[in-house]
Automatic annotation (TrEMBL):
Keywords: Cytoplasm, Lipid biosynthesis, Lipid metabolism, NAD, NADP, Nucleotide-binding, Oxidoreductase, Phospholipid biosynthesis, Phospholipid metabolism. GO terms for biological process: carbohydrate metabolic process; glycerol-3-phosphate biosynthetic process; glycerol-3-phosphate catabolic process; glycerophospholipid metabolic process; phospholipid biosynthetic process. It is an enzyme of class 1 (oxidoreductase). Pathway: Membrane lipid metabolism; glycerophospholipid metabolism. It is found in: Cytoplasm. Catalyzes the reduction of the glycolytic intermediate dihydroxyacetone phosphate (DHAP) to sn-glycerol 3-phosphate (G3P), the key precursor for phospholipid synthesis. Coiled coil: none annotated. The lineage of its organism: Bacteria, Bacillati, Actinomycetota, Actinomycetes, Micrococcales. This is Glycerol-3-phosphate dehydrogenase [NAD(P)+]. Its EC number is 1.1.1.94.
Length: 379
């Protein structure tokens, strides 16, 4: 069961946020409202100037007043000077290049926190893996944050929660103690794989939901896809070493519900445009910010094939993106199988499969976990 971290926030801790899009700016607000000393880096000098002087980001958070103490700059060296924690919110496909430039200015003992929800196309690596490789950091200095976090709602201070994950519980608690305030609550766990993949995979299911919504299907269809999509997410993540309960928490189910149902979700919006008949190139041109779900479909399917994981919903999304499947034909493929199958539980066990197979599965799980259940989110 998820438990709220007991750590107190550390007032005045010097932190940097790299990236001044909607989520980066929102998270800088979260941190500043929690008492941290925050400098946000914006690539464009004019945007940095607006945040610094007017306390607004009219490009991405129109109408939102930013904290008076929040500072901004377009110089990486100034943003990172003295930062004990560095929060990174840049497009996933640009992460490696940004880190190469920022790396020399990041303190050797700083904790680097990924706010991103994507995988690198060229390598299939999770964002924490790209951070570790590029900055040559031990995984204990890296944390990731995920959950049902629609930026505009949080910027308007609507209450929500998120998960901070690191292989080092101490690092996770250190970040969680800073990344919390009266409207934003942080929990912790040590399942980085599950937390990151939850954030990536829900984007793909959200695109599918948008497609069927745009094509005119109703709530039954969307509920079926959300539910079956969670099975695909869990099967995939567990195949790569995640704990299944992570996918039933904030980083999985919670984020999936928010992203699949809200018009504020870029992935849902992109899917809806596709469902209405727009070509992929037109959809990309209409989106003001990167839509991570569109970029992640191909690398996720490649990773799924490597582990023998079936992802029929994501595969149908790929076909719509490629123009080989009419969006109006997507729902029957997503909600039916070639032959009757048992509904799968959260740990991937098939109900109605052979008794031998289920017994072997239980025996394997017991050996793997030494008779103990896998740890979930913890205080």
């Amino acid at each position: 069961m998820m438990a709220r971290t007991s750590a107190r926030k550390a007032p005045g801790k010097r932190v940097a946020v790299l990236g001044a899009g909607s989520w980066g700016t929102t998270f800088a607000k979260i941190l500043a409202d929690g008492g941290a000393d925050v400098v946000i880096w914006a690539r464009r000098p004019e945007l940095a100037r607006e945040i610094q002087e007017a306390k607004r980001n009219s490009d991405y958070l129109a109408g939102v007043n930013l904290p008076l103490g929040l500072r901004a700059t377009s110089r990486l060296d100034l943003a990172l000077a003295g930062a004990e924690q560095v929060y990174v919110s840049v497009p996933s496909q640009a992460l490696r290049e940004n880190l190469k430039v920022a790396g020399p200015h990041i303190h050797a003992e700083a904790i680097v926190v990924s706010l991103m929800k994507g995988v690198e196309k060229a390598t299939g690596m999770r964002m924490s893996e790209v951070i570790s490789e590029t900055l040559r950091l031990d995984e204990s200095q890296i944390a990731v944050i995920s959950g049902p976090n629609l930026a505009l709602e949080i910027a308007k201070e609507q209450p929500t929660a998120a998960v901070v994950s690191s292989t080092s519980l101490e690092a996770a608690q250190s970040v969680a103690s800073v990344a919390r305030n009266r409207y934003f609550h942080s929990f912790v766990n040590t399942d980085v794989i599950g937390t990151e993949f939850g954030g990536v995979l829900k984007n793909l299911i959200a695109v599918a939901i948008g497609i069927v919504d745009g094509a005119g299907y109703g709530e039954n269809t969307k509920a079926s896809i959300i539910t079956r999509g969670l099975v695909e997410m869990t099967d995939f993540a567990v195949a790569y070493g995640a704990h299944p309960e992570t996918l039933s928490g904030l980083a999985g189910l919670g984020d999936l519900i928010a992203t699949s149902q809200s018009p504020l979700s870029r992935n849902n919006t992109a899917g809806r445009l596709l469902g209405q008949g727009y070509h992929l190139s037109d959809v990309v041109n209409q989106m003001q910010q990167t839509t991570e779900g569109l970029a992640s479909v191909a690398p996720i399917l490649e990773l799924a094939r490597a582990k023998g994981v079936e992802m029929p919903i994501v595969e149908q999304v790929r076909q719509v993106l490629a123009g080989t499947l009419d969006p109006k034909d997507i729902a029957p493929h997503l909600t039916t199988d070639d032959e009757p199958q048992g509904e799968r539980t959260m740990d991937g066990q098939a109900q109605g499969g052979s008794a031998v197979r289920r017994a072997l599965k239980r025996a394997f799980d017991q050996l793997r976990n030494s008779g103990r259940s896998a740890p979930g989110d913890r205080p």
